[in-house]
Amino acid sequence: MEPAPTPGGLRRSFQPDIVEYSSQVRILFVSPRQCRPPLSGAKLREYHLARALAQRAELTHVYFSRGPHGEMDALPWETVAVPAPRFYTPAKIARGIVGRWPLPVVNYTSAAMESALAALVSRRPFDLVHIDILHMAAYEGILRRAGAPVVYNWHNIESEAMWRYGAAAASPAHRLYAALTARRLWNLETEILRTGFGHVVCSERERETLRGAVKGARVAVIENGVDTEFFQPAPADGNRRRHVLFVGQMSYHANADAAVAFAREIWPAIRERFPDWRFTVAGADPAAAVRALAEDAGVKVTGTVEDIRPLYREAIAAVVPLRVGGGTRLKILEAMAAGVPVVSTPLGAEGLAVSPGRDILIAEKREDWLTHLSALSGEGDLWNAMAEAGRRLVTARYDWGTLGRALYETYRQWLDEAQ
Questions:
Q1: How confident is the model over 235-250, as a mean pLDDT?
Q2: Bridge-based pairing state of the strands 243-247 and 150-153
Q3: What does the pLDDT average to over 415-419?
Q4: Angle between helices 158-168 and 253-261 (to 10 degrees)
Q5: How confident is the model at residue 10, as a pLDDT?
Q6: Which residues pair with 303 in a beta bridge?
Q7: Structural domains counted in the chain
Q8: Domain containing 363: what range?
Q9: What are the b/e assignments for 215-248, b being 16+ CB within 10 Å?
C-alpha cells in the first residue's frame, strides 16, 4: 500500500521487522540522505548500519528525500521522508560565511526537517539519537529535547577532507573557500566532540585524531564494510579480463578528480603497453569532466550501474587513484570481496587494515601504476594470491553483519554505562 503524504509534504512508512532478538531500545536515526538505492559509499554505510540497528531495536529513520520513495518505503523499519532543501542559495552562502554554521551544515538546514524532528521528539520517547554525519549538527538542539544521548556517525573527518580539497584545488577562490570552511568545520567538530554523548568513526586513525582534539571524547571505531554474500569471486566473463575498473559516486569531487587525473596522466602509458585494455569509470552522476573522458581512447564512462558485479568479472584490477578526500573506501572492500586485486594510492587505502604486497598493491609514484598492473596482467600466481588474500581479509574483518552487530553492542554498552 502506498503511504499517504503527511502534512508538510512528509511521507511515512512502517512495516514490522523480523528482529534477531527482542529489545526495548528505541533509536532515532537522522540522516541527510536517502540511502536507497545505495549508489555511493555513504549510502551503503548508512543502509547497512541502519539495517543492523533495526534488526535489534525499534528504529525511526528520518532523512532528506531527493527522489522517488519506493525503495525507502519498502524498508522493514519506520521511515520519515522530508523534502530536501535547496543547496548553495545566495542566502545560504551568506549565512555560511558570516553565520554560526559553516556552509556544508547550512546547506542542510530546513524548516521542514526542524518541524519533523520536533514533532517526533515531542510525541514519543527515544533512548538514543544517531546523527548520521556532521552536516546535520544544526538539529542537535532540537534532538536533545528527546532527553536521549546524541551520537554522531562520522563518515570521515570533514575538516580534513576540506583541507585536502583545498590543497589540490587549482583555483585561488576554491583554495580560499576550502581554507576558511575547513577552519570552521574543525571548530564545529571540536564543539560536537564536547557536546555529543558519543562518536562513531571508520578507522583507528580517525579515532586517535578526534581523541587528540578533545580529551575524554567517547569515540568508537565501526569500520566500513561489504556484503560478502552479495559480492562473490566469479570466473571472468569471456576468456580474459581486460578492464581496469574505478568505481565510485562520480559527482563526488574526490572521485571525479581521481578519474580525470588517472585517465589523463596514468592511463596513456598503460594503454600503450596493453592496447586491448579499457579503463572503465563506473558510478552514478558523473561530473562533466568525467563524462568528457569517454572521448579518450580506451576509456568508458558507464554512469549509474544497476549491478556492478558483471564489471568486476571483467576487471584485471580495481584501481583507487584518489589524491584528495577522507574516510575509508568501500570500493576497495567490494573489489576484494568480488575477488579482484586492488591497486591504490596510499590515501585511497588510508584507514584500512591492508598489507601492501599481500592483499593490495600501493602506487606511491606515477610509474608504479604500470609496474603493478603489468605484474597482474598475466592473471597468474600474483593475481590469484592477491585475489584470495583480499577475499580472506574482508570476510574475516569487514563483513557488514559483523560490523552492524558491533555498532549495536557499542550503543548498548554506552547506554548501560550512562545509567
A1: 86
A2: unpaired
A3: 89
A4: 40
A5: 43
A6: 282
A7: 2
A8: 243-397
A9: eebbbbbbbbbbbbeebeeeeeeeeebbbbbbbb
- Beta bridge partners, 219, equal 199
Inform me whether the pLDDT recorded for 294 exceeds 60: yes
User: Based on the domain organization, do 214 and 335 belong to the same domain?
Assistant: no
Q: State the average pLDDT over residues 288-305.
A: 94
- Please tell me whether residue 228 adopts helix, strand or coil conformation: coil
- Angstrom distance (rounded) from CA 42 to CA 318: 19
What are the grid coordinates assigned to 332, written together?
Answer: 576497495
Given a cut of 80, whether residue 19 has pLDDT beyond it is no
Q: Distance (Å, rounded) from C-alpha 224 to C-alpha 102?
A: 26
Q: Is 237 a member of any domain?
A: no
| DSSP-derived 3-state class of residue 77 | coil
- CB contact at 8 A, 273 and 65: no
Sign of CA dihedral 122, 124, 127, 129: negative
Q: What residues pair up with 220 in beta bridges, in sequence order?
A: 200
Tell me, what amino acid is at 151?
V
Q: Where are the beta strands (DSSP E) in 40-192?
A: 58-65, 78-83, 128-132, 150-153
CATH for 315:
3.40.50.2000
pLDDT tens-place string over residues 93-125: 999 988 899 999 999 999 999 999 999 999 999
Q: What is the mean pLDDT of residues 234-254?
A: 87
Residue 303 lies in a domain: yes
Give the orientation angle of helix 158-168 with respect to helix 172-195, to 10 degrees: 170
